[in-house]
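Entry:
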Amino acid sequence: MNIPEYISSGILEAYVLGDLPDVERVEVERNLVEYPELKQELARIEETSEALLMKFAIEPPSLVKEKLMNAIQPAGKVVQMKTASVLQWKFAAAASVVIAVGASYLAYDYHAKWKNSEFALNDLIAQNKQIAQDYNQVNQKLDKVENHLRIIDNPSFTKVVMKGTPNAPQAVASVYWNEQTKEVFLSIQNLRELSQQNQYQLWAIIDGKPVDAGVFDANVAGLIKMKDITKGAVTFAVTIEPRGGKPSPSLETMQVAGNVKG
């Protein structure tokens, strides 16, 4: 049950006034037993109604009372109305007005509170979604780092440090190559950024011939998965090529190179 919406419907005020059909009245009483917050709200409504009645109760002029008595008593017969009956009539008349006004105000007040609560809930849901997304991103990054560490620490991978050539003396990059699985991973330590028209290309020298190991950009962090390289590689090198790479290297643009230690 949506408690705020149920309260704002005004059904509890109608219950206090006794305006509900038997079926709805039984349902309200069942809900009052099941939901303590409804019982608390009912008590608050009763207290508020009583306070309003006492505050706004008006003593009718004696002339009004006399005319009323004359209108309701049979001709020639005097009926003595007890003070308690007059008080009950006054209470009921005032209650019908005060509680109607109070019910309208309470319905509006609770509707506003419910809308504010709805906005706050939607905002909280959005925040939780963002937190979940951030959490998943962090987990993915941690998983990626963990996988990279497994490769770096795996003795099955041979690390080949490629140092800078005269074209780029400060450049450094490393290759992790598993000769059995043919996997190749590249780690960039220091390579300058290139224009959008160019990319770096990794080569493996096998039997004196360069074999394409894939292209990459310099702004990639962590290990980069390159093309598989079969057995027999003795050297790895990186050149600058047009974006997308070439079938054969431009040796005059070589940036780094390193020999595989046997």
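The radius of gyration is 43 Å.
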